[in-house]
């Protein structure tokens, strides 16, 4: 027997897991600590990143004033593209190179934090954009050294980007999302202030909250770390190391909190308890998935987002069609969990129970259906579209979606079942409509 409920590692597989996170400060009002924390890191000139909408909110003024009050010079970049692209990453990196700050602050959702990570990376270690991007889409080169300090301040309860070493963008030439994954990208500090989410529209609370839900569910059901081949050298152990005892703790608690609070947080912006709990779930799930890795619903989401034609969601400040990240993920989830539950039915039933389903008397063979039914109930309660058909896809798109998802091997190999192109096509077909 290995650690806790995990079996001992098989021959050639990894017998250990590593826990990493940014330094986290959590609590209502803690954004006011920003200036002091930046100064304590030895910073004098910082670049403050945001997007146009967040830059118009009182929290942006608060962050800016806190930095100035601590005696820092602040340069602002508020042109972050919501759902970033290779072009928007490149523009942000240009700004970072030209302004040459000695540290970075990001204030916004995952789009802002990811863009700030990329700007820091390409300004510190200049290279072609595809150099550090995950293979096979990019060259997958290792980041050559540390980046400059980065304080990340999330304003959505969603991506967990403030504690992960991941930056995601849309590669326009391929119409596909992809990303950069490296320990070096992980922000130095995360200041997680639930009050920052008070101004979020319900549609963003819903999509970002379902991203959190899928982080927890995918990390909990990922291939266990003891089934992953041992790395060539211990220092090369990937961040997507599979389900492990540490990530399980965060996943279980995040699922329980989400089950209790997601509907309240979407329904009522003045429900500060629900919004705070959602932020806590996002932090727990972010640390968990940053150390375990997500799998098929996220891998498939990159194609769903990348091939969008004309879907324009309410609540988002983008000018062009887009499927918000959390929506693109959750639309695949019921189909995936129905299929994979047989690998670890007890985990799938436990997840359904934590989310609020009545699992008494459920047999192992029912696990997939019980969990899928609970997911669909939550999706409907918070206003998600009815499957991929609801964001404009049809049966005729299934082959292209499977082609688009298949290169996401970093994620797909973390699934407990092999995700071949025919399997992906079948999952996309099952995800077209749920009710
Ligand atoms: N790096 C990671 O580990 C990771 C993980 C998951 C997703 N992502 C990426 O993160 C991005 C999605 O991020 P997100 O879901 O946080 O949303 P987002 O950053 O794209 O923001 C969504 C919308 O909400 C607005 N907004 C943000 N905070 C607000 C606030 N407090 N009040 C009012 N409006 C606000 C934004 O202006 C935007 O219109 C995607 O590109 C996704 O691929 C990254």
From TrEMBL:
SUPFAM superfamilies: Dehydroquinate synthase-like. Its EC number is 1.1.99.24. Residues 22-194 form the Alcohol dehydrogenase iron-type/glycerol dehydrogenase GldA domain. It catalyses: (S)-3-hydroxybutanoate + 2-oxoglutarate = (R)-2-hydroxyglutarate + acetoacetate; 4-hydroxybutanoate + 2-oxoglutarate = (R)-2-hydroxyglutarate + succinate semialdehyde. One of its GO terms (molecular function) is hydroxyacid-oxoacid transhydrogenase activity. Pfam families: ADH_Fe_C, Fe-ADH. Residues 240-431 form the Fe-containing alcohol dehydrogenase-like C-terminal domain. Keywords: Oxidoreductase, Transit peptide. Belongs to the iron-containing alcohol dehydrogenase family. Hydroxyacid-oxoacid transhydrogenase subfamily. This is hydroxyacid-oxoacid transhydrogenase. It comes from Mycobacterium helveticum.
């Amino acid at each position: 027997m290995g650690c806790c409920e995990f079996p001992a590692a098989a021959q050639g597989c990894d017998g250990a897991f590593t826990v990493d996170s940014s330094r986290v400060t959590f609590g209502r009002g803690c954004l006011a600590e920003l200036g002091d924390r930046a100064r304590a890191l030895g910073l004098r000139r910082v670049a403050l990143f945001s997007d146009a909408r967040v830059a118009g909110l009182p929290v942006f003024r608060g962050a800016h004033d806190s930095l100035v009050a601590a005696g820092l010079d602040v340069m602002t970049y508020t042109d972050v593209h919501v759902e970033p692209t290779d072009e928007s990453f490149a523009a942000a990196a240009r700004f970072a190179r030209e302004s040459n700050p000695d540290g970075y602050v990001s204030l916004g959702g995952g789009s802002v934090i990811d863009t700030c990570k990329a700007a820091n990376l390409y300004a510190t270690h200049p290279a072609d954009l595809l150099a550090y991007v995950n293979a096979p889409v990019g060259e997958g080169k290792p980041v050559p050294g540390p980046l400059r300090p980065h304080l990340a301040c999330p304003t959505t309860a969603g991506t967990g980007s403030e504690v992960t070493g991941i930056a995601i963008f849309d590669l326009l030439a391929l119409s596909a999302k992809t990303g950069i994954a490296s320990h070096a990208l992980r922000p130095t500090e995360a200041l997680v202030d639930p009050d920052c989410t008070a101004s979020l529209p319900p549609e963003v609370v819903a999509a970002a909250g379902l991203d959190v839900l899928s982080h927890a569910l995918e990390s909990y059901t990922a291939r266990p770390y003891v089934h992953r081949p041992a790395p060539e050298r211990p220092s090369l152990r990937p961040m997507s190391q599979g389900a492990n005892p540490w990530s399980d703790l965060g996943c279980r608690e995040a699922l329980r909190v989400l089950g209790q609070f997601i509907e309240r947080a979407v329904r009522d912006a003045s429900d500060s308890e629900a919004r705070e709990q959602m932020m806590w779930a996002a932090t727990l799930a972010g640390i968990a998935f940053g150390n375990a890795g997500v799998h098929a619903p996220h891998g498939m989401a990159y194609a769903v987002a990348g091939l969008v034609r004309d879907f324009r969601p309410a609540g988002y400040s983008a000018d062009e069609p887009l499927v918000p990240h959390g929506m693109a993920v959750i639309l695949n989830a019921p189909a995936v969990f129905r299929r994979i539950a047989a690998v670890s039915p007890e985990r799938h039933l436990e997840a359904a129970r934590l989310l609020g389903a009545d699992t008494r008397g459920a047999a192992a063979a029912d696990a997939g259906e019980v969990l899928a039914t609970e997911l669909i109930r939550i999706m409907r309660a918070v206003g998600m579209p009815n499957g991929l058909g609801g964001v404009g896809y049809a049966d005729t798109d299934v082959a292209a979606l499977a082609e688009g998802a298949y290169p996401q091997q970093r994620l797909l190999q973390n699934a407990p079942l092999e995700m071949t192109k025919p399997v992906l096509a079948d999952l996309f077909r099952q995800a077209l409509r749920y009710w």
